[in-house]
Amino acid sequence: MSVLEIKDLYASVETNEGRKQILKGVNLTINSNETHAIMGPNGSGKSTLAYTLAGHPKYEVDSGQVFLDGVDILTMTPDERAQAGLFLAMQYPVEVPGVPMTNFLRTAKTAIDGEAPAVRQWTKDLTAAMKNLRMDPKFATRSVNEGFSGGEKKRAEVLQLELLKPKFAVLDETDSGLDVDALRIVSEGVNRAKANTGLGIMMVTHYTRILKYIKPDIVHVFADGHIVETAGPELADYLEEHGYDKYMPEGSTESAQA
Amino acid sequence: MAERKEISIPVADPTNPYAIPAAMPSSADKNPRSFSVEDFALPSRKLDDWRFTPVERLEEFASVFTPAGQVQVSVSAIDGSDVPSGVSCVSIPKSQAPAGTVSKPNDRVSAVEWNSGANAVHVHLAEDTSVPVLVRVHSESFELDSLHLVITTAANVHADIVVEHDGDARLAEGVEISTGDFSEVSTTFIHEWSDTSKHVGNHRIHVGKGATLRHSVVTLGGQTVRIRMDQDFGGEQGDLTMLGIYFAEPGEHIEHRTMVVHNQPECKSRVIYKGALSGQGAHSTWVGNALIEPTAPGTDSYELNRNLILVPGAIADSEPNLEIENGNIVGAGHASSVGRFDDEELFYLMSRGVPEKEAQKLVVAGFFNELIEEIGIPAISEHLMNTVNARLER
């Protein structure tokens, strides 16, 4: 049983117009086996929260703490956070030319586990995980994310999630750019990871449609850099019907339906 | 009213718009070709060909010298076994063909090399070789030395030859390569000199009619290494690939200059050079000249140079020059870049648990991977990758 605790987190990003504070006092606790949906209008800071947790150099923490099982991860480098059990599935996975997927996966697995996986077991696991995600075996020999379609990139993210077995996964707009079939396959992968490892999930999404496949236990509305409302899954239904109007400045509207 | 002088403008043949040679002479290549040292000016930063070069470090190569004769040249199969059949290696006087038959020296240092020392090493590939031929150039002395190497192949031959340089040296090297018609040949030059060594090289290359040549240069060590490569085609449908890999560390100047001349119809050339640079005082230069002459319709040429700055403070000069004197061509492209590690790539790898150093290694391996594979000599691929990795460990 693990706990991810975000305590009064403030973070900024350097922009052309100077330093801009995006996260303004985020408080959130996620336990193993829980799925939290973080929903909110565009520009509310949802993705910033995801990247700040993973340690992206662009975002600077102003104050606050993030504890993974009592240890503050904000002082750690991104690789140390991953080794501690945090995983970020990115909205736009980065292409790394010339680095074969297999090398990368094996290097990552070795770094996370602290030892190289046994060759036979690893090959078996990799093949099975790829098959589950309906991925072409040829894909393993291609360069990391290079030339992948949007759907392939998201599958590759979930493949890593299943192989690296983190304690907590942050899914940043994992549903974006997926057709219905791909959304189902990707969601099944996330659900499998949760069933197998007791993964705690923080699912960042603008739209409600992924919630049909990955059922949240708790739904949070995120606006202006912090959580403004927390409730059960019924909150998502409300958002689907009414959008984010209630949480936005006067005069603007935004739908939560894809 | 003053009498008007008629200006004569060449008139195009309407049935062949490409028939008229360009009215302008080539500007890319005005330098003399000569065996005589006096025909060339002393290297100076003021000269276009030398403006990126720390000429003061190469002063000793600017006037004729008596070579120390310490450089050892040995020939074998790449696995160390005896020279494969069909390969001959003999010493010949420079006055004897094929020495001196592939173009002529094209700058001061190459003319000096030609006039310093009387003999050349001639390697001839008369038959297909099942394993690559290895020419090992080894030196353990910083005494000024010269080496003239002539590589020729028969027509229709399929062969690979690797020329490896290592040790301590101050070497002026001239290389002449002439491939037979319809041959398929690869020549790979590896420079792994000690970090106080100096090397000036001049490759003069002639690609036979319908022949394919893959010419690769890997420069992983040496305080000052400057290699100029000039090439032309002997007939139509020649295919030239020039690949380069280099790694410059603080205090090192690594320079490659390629001069591809399309003088025959329907030939293809690809020049791809990639380098990594690490830290203050590391300096690389790539100058890629491509000249498409009026006699070369159907030319397909492309050149590319990429530089990856690993540690700030390094300087990479990258200059593609393209001169097209024929409108009837398939393509003539170039690309050049100098960049730092991509922060997003590193973050992505690190967010998967890969430590920064390891992530950098992956990115650099990825940067060179393709090129090392394309050099196409499995026997040296692993060695090259390991050497690059060892550099990253420093």
Q: What's the structural domain tally of chain B?
A: 1
Write down the CATH class of chain A.
Answer: Alpha Beta
Largest interface: A-B, 31 and 24 residues
Mean pLDDT of chain A: 93
CA(first)-CA(last) distance of chain B = 78 Å
What is the element string of chain B, with H for helices and E for strands? EEHEEEEEEEEEEEEEEHHH
- CATH architecture tag of chain A: 3-Layer(aba) Sandwich
Low-pLDDT parts of chain B are: none
Number of strands of chain B: 16
What structural category characterises the helix and strand content of chain B?
Answer: mainly beta
Oligomeric composition of the shown chains: heterodimer
| Morphology of chain B | globular
Low-confidence stretches of chain A: none
Pfam families (chain A): ABC_tran
Family (chain A): Belongs to the ABC transporter superfamily. Ycf16 family.
Keywords (chain A): ATP-binding, Nucleotide-binding
GO molecular function, one term (chain A): ATP binding
Architecture overview:
- The complex is a heterodimer of chains A (258) and B (394).
- In chain A, 45% of the residues are buried.
- Chain A has a single domain (3-247), classed as P-loop containing nucleotide triphosphate hydrolases (Rossmann fold, 3-Layer(aba) Sandwich).
- Chain A is built from seven helices and twelve strands.
- By secondary structure, chain A is of the alpha/beta class.
- By secondary structure, chain B is mainly β.
- Chain B has one domain (40-340).
- Chain B is 13% helix and 44% strand.
- Chain B has helices spanning 108-115, 343-350, 356-375, 378-393; strands at residues 72-77, 87-93, 119-125, 133-153, 158-178, 184-193, 198-207, 212-221, 224-233, 239-248, 253-262, 268-278, 283-292, 300-311, 315-324, 331-340.
- Chain B has a 16-stranded mixed β-sheet that branches.
- The longest helix of chain B is centred in the last third of the chain and has 20 residues, at 356-375.
- The chains are: A alpha/beta (258), B mainly beta (394).
- At the A-B interface, helix 2, strand 7, helix 3 and strand 8 of A face helix 2 and helix 3 of B.
